[in-house]
Amino acid sequence: MLDEPRSGRLAAWGNALLAGLVPPDDAAQRIAEGDAVHRVAGLPGEPGPVGLTLALGRLRALGATGLRVALPVPGHPLGLSGPPEFNARALAAGEAVTGCGVALGLVPEVHEAGPEGDVHVEVVWQCMTVREAPPADVPSLGEAERELAEALREATELLAKLDVAGSGPVADAALAAYRARAEAGRQLLAPGYPPRAVRVLELAQKVGALIDIARGPAGGDGREHGAAVSSSQIAARMEALRPVERTARRAQVAAYDSFVEERERRAP
Questions:
Q1: How many domains in the chain?
Q2: Which of 90-94, 157-161, 219-223 has the highest mean pLDDT?
Q3: In sequence order, what are the beta bridge partners of 105?
Q4: pTM, 2 dp
Q5: For residues 67 and 97, is the Cβ–Cβ distance under 8 A?
Q6: Residue 10 lies in a domain
Q7: Domain hosting residue 118, numbered range
Q8: How far apart are CA 226 and CA 216, in angstroms?
């Protein structure tokens, strides 16, 4: 959970573009940040894949007024509303974007090539029909912030237990890396988002960092943290992490969706 989801960047900067707060080229550049190129395939009226600038313009012409994020995992279709075909693709990708005002959704397909350290990444967003219904299990910003405070406490306590087992240096180094990224001045959300959304997203990412630390390098099974850890203890640790991870994902979606929620709240 240390990395920002591509769906989050697409929704955040796509929302800013649809609201007229950023120019198309700037939005496309921020969405593709770190990747070589992003294209959108399957857009109504387009015979083949198109670039982000054209795709976002086409979505606006089709009636899109905003974009929402979905971050589903097995057993938790967070942010999804169907149909099953779209849900299955989104679940396989672990993320998706759905439109407001238009019954369309986007699921990323990521293609990587090249040696380690020089990987060329291309992303093709597959445009599919979605069901116009409230997204599943998305909390309000206020609810997400309250849940995160408890989740942060739980994650910190779990890390403390891991440190007792001798993982202090590993956890400290990983958390230091997260803090360095957080202090690098990166812009978490696009213009137009409420300050509370930035605060919630930052806290959700911190909780996500703690979860990744507890799991170990590369999302491991926890054996990296401490010696002589039994399989049952590892299973218990992973089980303890699930509700914390769920809370962090829900908060991320709430933060990215807050642009749309705020606009709808202010609508006459």
A1: 2
A2: 90-94
A3: 98, 128
A4: 0.86
A5: yes
A6: yes
A7: 6-136
A8: 10
